[in-house]
Amino acid sequence: MGGYFVSEPNLPRGTVKTVLLGDKYIKKLEKSLEKLGIAAIGVPGNPFVPEPVAYHADMSVCHLGYNTLAVASGIYEEFRSRVPARFKLIRAESPQKAEYPHDIGLNACIIGDRLLHNLKYTDRSISAFAQENRLRSYHVNQGYTKCSVCVLTRNRIITADVGIHRVCEELGIYSLLIEGGSIRLEGYDTGFIGGCCGKISGDKIAFTGNLKKLRDEKRILNFIWDSGIEAVFLTEEPVFDVGSIIPVEEC
User: Fold this and answer.
1) 204 touches 195 (CB < 8 A)
2) Computed from CA positions of residues 226, 8, 1, 192, in that sequence, does the dihedral angle turn out positive or negative?
3) Strand 246-250 relative to strand 149-153: parallel, antiparallel, unpaired?
4) Which one in 29, 59, 150, 225 has a CA-CA gap of 20 to 30 Å to 185?
5) Which of 113, 10, 17, 25 has the alpha carbon at shortest distance from 63?
6) What pLDDT is recorded for position 3?
7) What are phi and psi of 226, to 5 degrees?
8) Nearest CA-CA partner of 249 in 65, 91, 36
9) Mean pLDDT of residues grouped by 10 in the chain (251 residues)?
10) From CA 65, how far away is CA 55, in angstroms rounded?
11) What proportions of the chain, in percent to the nearest 5, are helix, strand and coil?
């Protein structure tokens, strides 16, 4: 396990060696990840967010770049005991609650030097880091921002959220707007495109399952291919939302 830290969140350049993944999903995905040479650090369940997403890594941890992770106070101590000392953890400042929008503080999406989130509720640990490191922050109404965005490159994303799509287009980020739905997430009508994937190298992105039930399957796969990226499917099941596969170390 380990290597060089992924310098830009969501965007490894080399081959990913370590990802963050919710405990609940490790058993299901670890064999496929191991075949790819990837180890998973489990993110424990968070008792302060809604139960269906308690084990979603992107609800409890935000990778800020290199070795730095903002971590929900509700899981901080347990997560600290699991993570090698080479990682720098910043404890989130705002307590989370199960009611929206008090659960979204860490669900920001960083794309290059741009941070997208509902800035009214971004945890101070993230907003302070963004200011200190000259990340440009942009407001979107969708609080589950990271869940809603499949980051392919600094300038190409996929989302089903119209508001995020419009902001990204204004920023010069080429956004593929897809129809929502058909992504499995227990307890909800549907999950999100960003929550079911994560990049595993500079030119590969892994999905939890296949995209055959998505109406925009062909458009998505063509857009990924046109981005110079290969789609990898970790299971043969229809795609399901795990709260993102977060790459943190590469080689």
Assistant:
1) no
2) negative
3) unpaired
4) 225
5) 10
6) 76
7) -65, -20
8) 65
9) 88 98 97 98 98 98 98 98 97 96 98 98 98 97 98 98 98 98 96 98 98 98 98 98 98 95
10) 22
11) 25, 30, 45
